[in-house]
Amino acid sequence: MTEKECGHHEDHRRKLYRHLLLTVLIFIPFILFIILLIYLILRPTKPHFVLQDATVYAFNLSAASNLLTTTLQVTLSARNPNDRIGIYYDRVDVYAAYHGQQITVPTLLPATYQGHKDVTVWSPFIYGMEVPVSPYTGAALNEDGIAGKVMVNIRVDAKIRWWRVGTFISGKYHLFVNCPAFINYDCRNNAGAALGATGVKYGLPC
C-alpha cells in the first residue's frame, strides 16, 4: 500500500469519528429534551401519606436488660396526587423507630398499583420482640414514660415506579416516609402501654 493510500484511509477514519461524535452530541441533548418534556407535561409528584391510627398492643421495656417489646397496628393511607400518572408500589416496608433506633422488624406490605388520584389504605401489624436498645434510648424512654407520652416514628421504606404513558413505566425510585405517632406510656411500676390503646385519633400527614 502506498503512502498516499494510507493517508486516504486515515482521513476517512477521522471523518468517520467526527461524524460519530457529532451524532452522539446531537442525540444526547435530544433525549434529555424528551425526558424534560415528559416531566413538564406530567409533573410527577410523590404520594401523600397520612397516619390515620396507631393501636398499641404491647410496649414494654425491661429495665434490667434494656429489652423493648413492641406490638402496634397502624393504619396508613397513601394518595396519588397526580392527574395523569399511576404509581406502582413494588416493595413497601413499614417499621417503628424511637429516637432514631429501629425497634421493630420491617413488615412487608403487598405490592399494588395506584391509579390517578386514588387512595390506598394499609393496616399492618408491626412487631419487635425483646429488641435490645441502647442505654441512651432506654433512659430517654424512661423519661418519656414519667411524662406519660412517647413519640414513636412509623416509617415507610418503599420502592416505587411512576408515570405511565401508554406502556411506558419509569425506573424504580426510593421513597422514605416518616410519620410521628404519640402514644400513652407509663413506665412507673412497669405499667407500659395500655392494651389496645389508640395512639393517633385523627389523621396526621407524614
From TrEMBL:
This is Late embryogenesis abundant protein LEA-2 subgroup domain-containing protein. The chain crosses the membrane at residues 20-42. It is a single-pass membrane protein. The keyword Plastid does not apply. GO terms for cellular component: membrane. Keywords: Membrane, Transmembrane, Transmembrane helix. InterPro entries: LEA_2, NDR1-like. It comes from Castilleja foliolosa. Residues 75-179 form the Late embryogenesis abundant protein LEA-2 subgroup domain. It is found in: Membrane.
